[in-house]
Task: inverse folding
């Protein structure tokens, strides 16, 4: 099975880029893809993001029969232990949204507010739920999504990789059809490009490379305030 993959990361207006992305075709004909965003304001967030992605790939290769949720628990334990045992890394945290993509199925695990989507002719399907204070209130019916941009604590996370406690891990599978595109984004992307605009971009794009270029263009004209990164994967059936 062959795949088309496009990746992009940019620090935007920030001094440093704490986003980290990785996408790799596995020997078995699947793709492992992962996006991590070091938690802003915390020390070594960039390292935590890089480390979490590296651990994901290493554990996918060495633990092929383990569930992704178990792999995420191991990643959290390793990152947390490194932070606790090394004063210079104390407090480091990161989001992590990772998946294994096959021709007909997607397996995923997720912590934080990076996201995984599936794009196709029926529209945009958001696979993951943000682990943030704002989206917790939305799920509880205490905040409307259209009011999100005015919520003062919209970037406060409720879960992240590197916590001493066990974080909430969202895991699952999603059936894929021909021409489906899997998209992983950092909050610098979906913070300025909503699902409706994303769908419009997908519909007008004639190829995966065209989709990449159009998405970058939309992000840049939307005055991003953060690092912005994404991964696009499509199975060539």
Result:
């Amino acid at each position: 099975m062959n795949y088309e993959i496009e990746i992009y990361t940019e620090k935007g207006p920030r001094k440093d880029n704490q986003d980290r992305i990785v996408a790799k075709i596995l020997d078995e004909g699947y793709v492992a893809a992962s996006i991590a965003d070091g938690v802003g304001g915390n020390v070594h967030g960039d390292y935590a993001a890089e480390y979490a992605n590296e651990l994901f790939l290493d554990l996918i290769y060495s633990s092929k029969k383990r569930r992704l949720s178990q792999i995420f628990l191991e990643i959290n334990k390793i990152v947390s232990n490194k932070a606790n045992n090394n004063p210079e890394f104390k407090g480091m945290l990161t989001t992590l949204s990772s998946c294994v993509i096959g021709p007909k199925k997607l397996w995923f695990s997720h912590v934080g507010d990076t996201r995984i989507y599936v794009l196709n002719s029926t529209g945009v399907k958001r696979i993951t739920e943000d682990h943030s204070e704002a989206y917790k209130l939305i799920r509880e019916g205490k905040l409307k999504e259209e009011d999100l941009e005015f919520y003062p604590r919209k970037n406060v996370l409720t879960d992240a990789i590197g916590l001493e406690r066990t974080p909430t891990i969202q895991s699952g599978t999603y059936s894929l059809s021909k021409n489906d595109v899997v998209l992983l984004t950092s909050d610098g992307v979906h913070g300025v490009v909503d699902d409706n605009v994303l769908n419009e971009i997908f519909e007008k794009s004639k190829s995966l490379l065209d989709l990449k270029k159009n998405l970058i263009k939309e992000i840049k004209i939307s005055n991003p305030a953060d690092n912005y990164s994404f991964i696009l994967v499509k199975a060539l059936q």
About this structure: The mean pLDDT is 93. The two ends are 7 Å apart (CA to CA). The chain has one domain: 2-236. The chain is about 30% helix and 30% strand.
